[in-house]
# Entry
Amino acid sequence: MTNLKTLAALLIVTLVTACAGPSESTVDEGAAGAVPSSGAASSGVSEGGIGQGGAIGGGALGGPGASQENRIIYFEFDRFDIKPEYNAILQAHARYLSAHPASRLRLEGHADERGSREYNIGLGEKRAQSVRSVLLLQGAASDQIVTVSFGEERPAAIGSDDEAWALNRRVEIVYGQ
# Structure
């Protein structure tokens, strides 16, 4: 069932990418979005084309030049499966890694404050591993990716409400690690 879902998602991404046509390459250093990064800095790399710095929504889609909004994957409560809306972003990062074998990244898994510290560390790790699996399936090499879980220890948003919790359930993609 999982293989079927992955195949369907890849087919949809391929069709959307093929229909999108060429786009102008840009890097938007100010595309901070709603969630602050935990030290991930943009290198300004923009090489054009989807998956290697192509522009969507005002910032690069993949690689170290990706806008902040394209370097964070959000999750549902108590889940570590990747939402379909992130398939194109992950495909772009995988293509970048595949085309740049010397590039390295760290996947930082996070959870909201609900649950025990130990449970949240485990959930953050499952989220990071889930993103890693998708990147590997799409062409990245295993030695390019390391994972770490911060659990609830590094919240993106302070608060005990749905909005804060949603922003804290994430994996951040950090290049140069």
